[in-house]
């Protein structure tokens, strides 16, 4: 898919492909663990995959300026744009498969589809970056990143505020008013379909989603999807502020789409709650995109997302088990 005809011929060699992929994966790990995206803010690092005719040549970088200062993956060529579209909409397709199409399947089928689908989802960003020949380029220092301590406070404050609003709204209004009673039956059926309908298993599910899955989603949606969309927009609109705002809006709407599918199974497509809760999800995604873009590290948005998920599962426990 990437590179010239001779490049593609070289990649037919299993040995070369393995060594090249291992090298690129190691380079990505260095970016994430040692350089970190926070350093991208401070050094003006800008990532680009190589053009088809220049694989794996390093392409010149364009520094960020003005209010937003971050690094992003640049998406060039029709093939890469289709891949970006797949990254944005694959989670919605996966959710429809295991949540709707396989709703009446035996538990092992539902669990298998979920496990395989999620493994593909979270491997997709690294596979794309490895295949595209990830390179980095340093430019002059620019921008003013949000300090880590400030970002952590903002993330925690948002998580506590949003989580508290979710809990108070559900327990103090929605549940007593009977607005969520229609979701109880489908929620119990779905938990039974995944064999998670006991308090202990539900708690394990809540812990996994709140601690592990929230981090994986931030890596997928903010670290890659948001950053790649930002790079794609910058190919047509060089101003970094336009690219950042557009990427935050686009990635957050895509982030909310698979939540629409889930909520519609509980409340119905015509229910205002489905669309109100989905809009709130998009707003949360936009905030996390902004915070990640200004700070460049996953930890603040991970903590924030984790607190919100914990509140959601607390409400879910209240609905299913009644206490």
Question: Can you walk through the features of this model?
Answer:
The chain has one domain (5-321). The protein has a two-stranded antiparallel sheet with strand order 1-2. The relative contact order is 0.15. It has helices at 5-11, 14-43, 78-101, 107-131, 148-174, 181-193, 199-236, 240-267, 272-295, 298-321, and strands at residues 46-48, 135-137. With 323 residues, it is mostly helical.
In short:
The chain has 323 residues and is mainly alpha-helical. It has helices at 5-11, 14-43, 78-101, 107-131, 148-174, 181-193, 199-236, 240-267, 272-295, 298-321, and strands spanning 46-48, 135-137. 33% of the residues are buried.
Topology:
Blueprint: H1 5-11, H2 14-43, E1 46-48, H3 78-101, H4 107-131, E2 135-137, H5 148-174, H6 181-193, H7 199-236, H8 240-267, H9 272-295, H10 298-321
Antiparallel strand pairs: 1-2
What kind of oligomer do you see? single chain
Mean pLDDT: 78
Please report which band the strand proportion falls in: under 5%, 5-15%, 15-25%, 25-35%, 35-45% or over 45%: under 5%
Low-confidence stretches: 6-26, 28-71, 134-142
Q: What structural category characterises the helix and strand content?
A: mainly alpha
Features:
single chain; 323 residues; two-stranded antiparallel ribbon; 2 strands; 74% helix; globular
């Amino acid at each position: 898919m990437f590179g010239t005809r001779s490049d593609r011929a070289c990649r037919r060699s299993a040995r070369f492909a393995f060594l090249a992929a291992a090298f690129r994966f190691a380079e990505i790990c260095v970016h994430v663990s040692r350089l970190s995206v926070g350093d991208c803010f401070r050094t003006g690092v800008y990532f680009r995959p190589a053009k088809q005719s220049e694989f794996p040549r390093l392409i010149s970088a364009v520094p960020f300026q003005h209010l937003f200062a971050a690094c992003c993956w640049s998406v060039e060529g029709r093939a890469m744009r289709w891949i970006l579209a797949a990254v944005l909409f694959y989670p919605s397709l996966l959710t429809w498969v295991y949540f709707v199409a396989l709703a009446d399947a035996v538990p092992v089928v539902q669990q298998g589809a979920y496990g395989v689908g999620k493994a593909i989802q979270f491997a997709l960003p690294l596979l794309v970056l490895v295949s595209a020949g990830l390179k980095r380029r340093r430019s002059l220092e620019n921008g003013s990143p949000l300090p880590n301590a400030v970002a952590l406070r903002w993330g925690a404050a948002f998580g506590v505020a949003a989580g508290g609003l979710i809990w108070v709204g559900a327990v103090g209004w929605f549940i007593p008013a009977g607005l969520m009673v229609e979701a109880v039956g489908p929620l119990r059926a779905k938990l039974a379909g995944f064999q998670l309908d006991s308090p202990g298993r539900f708690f394990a599910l809540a812990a996994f989603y709140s601690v592990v899955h929230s981090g994986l989603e931030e890596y997928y949606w903010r670290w890659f999807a948001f950053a790649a969309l930002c790079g794609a927009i910058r190919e047509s609109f060089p101003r970094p502020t336009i690219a950042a705002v557009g990427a935050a809006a686009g990635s957050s709407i895509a982030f909310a789409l698979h939540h629409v599918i889930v909520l519609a199974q509980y409340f119905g497509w015509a229910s205002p709650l489905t669309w109100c809760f989905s809009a709130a999800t998009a707003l949360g995604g936009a905030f996390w995109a902004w915070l990640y873009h200004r700070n460049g590290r996953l930890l603040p948005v991970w903590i924030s997302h984790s607190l919100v998920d914990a509140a959601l599962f607390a409400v879910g426990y209240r609905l299913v088990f009644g206490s």
